Each structure stands twice: as structure tokens, then as C-alpha cells.
Amino acid sequence: MMRTRGFTLVELLVALFISAIMFAMGYGALQQALGNRETVKANQDRLGQLVNTMRIISQDVGQLAPRPTRSLVGDGADPALQADRRADALVTFTRFGWANPAGIQRPALQRVRYVLENGTLYREHWHVLDPVLGAQPARRALIGGVRTVGFRFMESGRSWAEQWPGIVTAGDPRQPQLRRRPIAVEVVLDLEDFGTITRIFEVPG
Description:
By secondary structure, the chain is α+β, with helices and mostly antiparallel strands. It contains 1 helix and 11 strands, in the order H-E-E-E-E-E-E-E-E-E-E-E. It has a single domain (58-202), classed as Pili subunits (Roll).
């Protein structure tokens, strides 16, 4: 009768040691895969933010309306499109196409402005077309991690201007200059992660 030979203690320890190494390698690979997944998701979310920001700007620019608004202090009119690098707001303008699914009694025109504050680009709009001093706009954060934002405006002669609408006589709401619109708007975003991104949006005539 033959006797069955079992594993020795040394063989069991070697097998356990090899298994432990394999489990450790597998766990490390799993952790790396999960980390890569989180990184990919974060990058996708960030890219989605950027795409959504450009989409919103494109929609706003594509709906630019030649409609000046009453000055906040009530002594004249503000241009339909107003941009001055010395001002707090990057750009302020009137746009068509304000959706009204609830049927509220208000115009389809909307006064909008873009503001860069503490590295975040915000879109603001007023609930009335001709706001008064002290009226607070609704604010929406579009994208963070922004170093700088630049707007330029193409004149009819194909030249670029960094301010709009140029020289306007204060207090005269009848000036044609107040209704002027560019033929295109250039937007330059300098982001901490993606660097400089430039887009040019056509303004429908």
C-alpha cells in the first residue's frame, strides 16, 4: 500500500508568498485603474465646462440685439453692446431670444453681462430689460481656473477694437452709435490647465 505524500511547510509558505505577491500586484493595478478613471472623469468634466461656456457665449453673441437700455442712474442710455477694459464687467449687451416657457409678462429681450471674479467667469442677467440702480442681476458661474478673459470686436472695415462702441455723447439716447453691433466677436480664455483658447463668433446681420 502506497502512502500519499502531502505538502511540506516550506512549500506552503512559498505558495502563500507567491499568492501574496500576485494579490499585491493585482491590487496595485486595480488602484491605478481607479485613479486613472477618476482623472479621466475629472478631465471630461472640465472639458464639458469649457464646451458649455463657449456654447453659452456663442448663443449670446448670435442673439445680439441693437437695443440700448436706460442708464442705471436714469440720466441717459447705455449702448446695446458695451465693453470697456477699465470697467468691472468684461462686456454688457442686449440679446434676443430670452426663452419664456412659463408665459411670464416680460420682453423676449435680455440684458446680459460677463464678469471675471476670483478666477471664475460669471454670466449675469437682469430680470428686467431696463434695470434701475440697485437692481441685482441673477448670476451663474460658467467656468473656474481662469487667468484672464479678453473680448475684441470686429468693425465693418475688418479691423479689431478692444472697446465698444467707441465715442458716445453722454446722455443722448438717440445716437445711432448706441445701436451699433460688430460683425464678429473674438473671445480669448486663458485657463490654468488648458492654456489660451481663442474663438471667433459671427454676429448675424
